[in-house]
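hiii so um. not sure if this is the right channel but i have a protein structure encoded as tokens and i wanna go backwards to a sequence. like what aa goes where. can anyone help
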């Protein structure tokens, strides 16, 4: 498992594969001659309900077949892949340790610290750590991030990659990968985004994750049960479709003329209220009382009128995050308009694909 990045330098393209409840999302990145990011390919393959349940692959063969379809559809060439575990199945803690320890001494200290937080035998988990830097609270010490997950969770992801002919190099944490991809966009804000309090909402199918970030530090994180699947259900009820038909029509934009007013507008208003509610919970739970920017990602992040509705409810500037912003787009047969429309969905997959190139 990797909670930082292990593979640096110039090398062949890297795949990031994001496995969510409702879909597989794939991004293939490389580095150009000027060290600029190149988006080679990306694609989404929907999954049926129940194939993935709370991060566990319940229907392995079906998900593997979906991954093969996605690889064939995108024409991805890379064979090395980074995957991620849901935050819910990873135990992570930031601890303070003495500076100047050797790698072996650090490992011993980390195992000692981990025993206090992990409710399993260390033989049952994969444990990793990353030295973040000098401690801000203890002079002469360093902050170290520890992450651990049950071995079977990691082996499940690795097994899926191997079943479709890929070599898994990194197993990360979804929220870490999302923050990595978001950091490129934050860095393009005025002043490089320095000191800015960013509320990043990643709106998935069944849940929405809020991460509040300042200067690459995670200030706050919380999940809430609300997502794009509720829009699918509204479409199905309104027009008498099955959930599968509603999802397909939603993705393809093949909806009746009154969809925008009858279904989309009420959903967008409800979603903006959920964003406002999540921010108010953050303010009441912490010493903070404002954010500088709200950024939206995920499949529903780019819904028409959502940024305006969020700003109206919260009074904070809001934008949709495009993880491919500033990247060179390869001529790999991607439909650019479709790719840009779906770009917020690829935040985590993009962060995973970036792992090879960053130390």
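sure thing!! here u go:
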């Amino acid at each position: 498992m990797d909670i930082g990045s292990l593979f640096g330098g110039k090398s062949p393209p890297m795949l990031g594969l994001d496995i969510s409840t409702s879909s597989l999302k794939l991004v293939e990145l490389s580095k150009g001659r000027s060290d600029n990011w190149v988006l080679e390919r990306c694609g989404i393959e929907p999954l049926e309900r129940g194939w993935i349940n709370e991060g566990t692959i319940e229907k392995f063969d079906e998900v593997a077949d979906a991954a093969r379809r996605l690889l064939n559809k995108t024409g991805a060439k890379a064979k090395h892949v980074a995957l991620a575990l849901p935050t819910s199945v990873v135990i992570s803690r930031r601890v303070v340790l003495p500076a100047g320890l050797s790698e072996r001494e650090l490992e011993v200290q980390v195992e000692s610290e981990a025993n206090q937080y992990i409710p399993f035998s260390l033989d049952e988990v994969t444990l990793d750590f990353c030295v973040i830097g000098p401690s801000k609270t203890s002079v002469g010490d360093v902050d170290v991030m520890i992450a651990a997950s049950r071995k079977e969770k990691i082996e499940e992801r690795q097994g899926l990659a191997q079943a479709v002919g890929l070599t898994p190099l990194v197993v990360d944490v979804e929220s870490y990968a999302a923050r990595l991809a978001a950091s490129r966009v934050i860095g393009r804000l005025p002043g490089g985004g320095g000191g800015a309090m960013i509320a990043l909402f990643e709106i998935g199918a069944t849940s929405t994750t809020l991460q509040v970030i300042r200067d690459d530090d995670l200030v706050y994180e919380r999940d809430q049960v609300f997502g794009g699947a509720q829009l699918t259900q509204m479409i199905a009820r309104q027009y008498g479709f099955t959930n599968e038909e509603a999802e397909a029509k939603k993705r393809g934009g093949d909806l009746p003329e009154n969809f925008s007013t009858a279904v989309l507008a009420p959903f967008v208003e409800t979603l903006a209220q959920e964003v406002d509610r999540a921010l108010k919970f953050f303010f009441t739970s912490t010493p903070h009382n404002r954010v500088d920017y709200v950024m939206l990602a995920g499949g529903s992040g780019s819904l028409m009128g959502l940024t305006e509705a969020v700003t109206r409810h919260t009074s904070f500037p809001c934008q949709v995050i495009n993880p491919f912003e500033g990247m060179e787009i390869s001529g790999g047969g991607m439909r650019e308009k479709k790719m840009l429309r779906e770009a917020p969905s690829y935040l985590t997959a993009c962060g995973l694909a970036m792992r090879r190139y960053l130390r």
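oh and The radius of gyration is 20 Å.
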